Amino acid sequence: MNKLQIKGNWNVAKGLLKQRYGQLTDDDLTYVEGKEDELVGRIQRVTGRAREEVERAVREVCDG
Description:
By secondary structure, this protein is an all-alpha fold. The protein has one domain. Helices cover about 55% and strands about 0% of the residues. The mean pLDDT is about 90.
């Protein structure tokens, strides 16, 4: 897999991810540039979803 790149307005992306996975909190969605793997890991841990699904969801909301 290519490195996950988060771009665009992260606040909008966070809102879309919260709509998709209602159990996520702002703390779960704290994004630090260069730490994309940690973000995906937190989302995966909270939602119980497969890593590939989480990465796909993050890409979708970030790419618009």
